[in-house]
């Protein structure tokens, strides 16, 4: 009698539906596609603060950090090697990874160096295996940062595999605090990450707080911006005037 009454209860049915939806969301987020929100400006102009991304979780296969939502990693038996991998991360890929050196926070950066590469920054120019990458001026990029109007210089950086992407510099090449670092020899199974906002990115150039990233810490590859807003999600009344319509459903490069 009790169970029949409970099963017919509207609140119980609604709870079952919510549990089903949350369970489905958890499975999809862990195995297929997971949303992420950009919290900082280290990847400007590729990503802006307030962009929401979709991350492909299966393109590199699965490690324990693939089964992670926010800063919570599901307690599963240790996966010693990535399983069901269809390929390896490549130069130019934009990836989300867990940074053990920063309270296990999720970071998003671009892969610049592969296992076995030697990488060095000389006057702000990336040198891979003794050769500087190609750089081409691409005008200016302006934005408002903390109320100040700032103009950056914009460049197209071409990696050795032919991948091209945009970077920005606030100061002249050679004047940034991370413009002359290295050389770094990337260990096997590790990757060297950098932000596209070269003068405002804590990345693999800072060994004590990021350093080389093991492949097991990579959670997935960003492929699409599905929403973007210049206000916080709590400022609901500002949503209509703060949505960046032009960024919605743009592919990541």
What does this molecule look like?
- The chain has 253 residues and is mainly beta.
- It has a single domain (32-70, 88-251), classed as Ribbon (Umud Fragment, subunit A).
- The protein has three helices and 17 strands.
- Strands 1, 2, 5, 6, 14, 15, 16 and 17 form an eight-stranded antiparallel beta sheet that branches. It has a four-stranded antiparallel beta sheet with strand order 9-8-7-13, with no helix packed on it.
- A hairpin with a 2-residue loop joins β3 and β4 (72-73).
- The model is unreliable at 20-30 (pLDDT under 50).
Jot down its keywords.
Umud Fragment, subunit A, four-stranded antiparallel β-sheet, 253 residues, 3 helices, 13% helix, eight-stranded antiparallel β-sheet, single chain, mainly beta
For this structure, the CATH topology is Umud Fragment, subunit A
Low-confidence stretches: 20-30
Total number of helical segments? Answer: 3
The percentage of residues in β strands lies in: 35-45%
Q: How does the helix and strand content classify structurally? A: mainly beta
Helix content: 10-25%
Give the CA-CA distance, first to last residue.
59 Å
Concise account of the structure shown:
With 253 residues, the protein is mainly beta.
What is the element layout, followed by pairings?
Blueprint: H1 2-8, H2 10-31, E1 33-37, E2 51-56, E3 68-69, E4 72-73, E5 94-99, E6 105-113, E7 118-122, E8 125-128, E9 131-132, E10 134-145, E11 148-158, E12 164-169, E13 181-185, E14 190-194, E15 213-214, E16 218-228, H3 239-242, E17 250-251
């Amino acid at each position: 009698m009790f169970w029949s009454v409970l099963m017919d209860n509207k609140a119980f049915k609604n709870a079952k539906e919510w549990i089903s939806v949350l369970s489905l969301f958890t499975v999809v987020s862990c195995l297929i596609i997971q949303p992420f929100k950009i919290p900082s400006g280290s990847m400007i102009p590729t990503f802006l603060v307030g962009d929401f991304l979709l991350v492909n979780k299966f393109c590199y296969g699965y490690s324990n950090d693939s089964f992670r939502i926010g800063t919570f990693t599901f307690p599963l038996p240790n996966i010693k090697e990535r399983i069901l991998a269809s390929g390896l991360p490549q130069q130019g890929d934009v990836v989300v990874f867990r940074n053990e050196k920063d309270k296990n926070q999720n970071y998003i950066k671009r892969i610049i160096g592969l296992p076995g590469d030697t990488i060095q920054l000389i006057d702000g120019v990336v040198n891979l295996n003794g050769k500087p990458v190609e750089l081409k001026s691409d005008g200016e990029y302006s934005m408002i940062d903390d109320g100040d109007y700032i103009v950056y210089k914009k460049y197209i950086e071409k990696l050795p595999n032919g991948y091209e992407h945009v970077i920005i510099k606030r100061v002249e090449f050679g004047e940034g605090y991370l413009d002359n670092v290295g050389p770094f020899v990337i260990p096997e199974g590790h990757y060297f990450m950098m932000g596209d906002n070269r003068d405002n990115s804590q990345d693999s150039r800072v060994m004590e707080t990021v350093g080389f990233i093991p492949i097991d810490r990579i959670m997935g590859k960003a492929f699409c911006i599905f929403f973007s807003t210049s206000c916080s999600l709590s400022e609901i009344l500002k949503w209509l005037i703060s949505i960046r319509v032009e960024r919605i459903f743009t592919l990541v490069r």
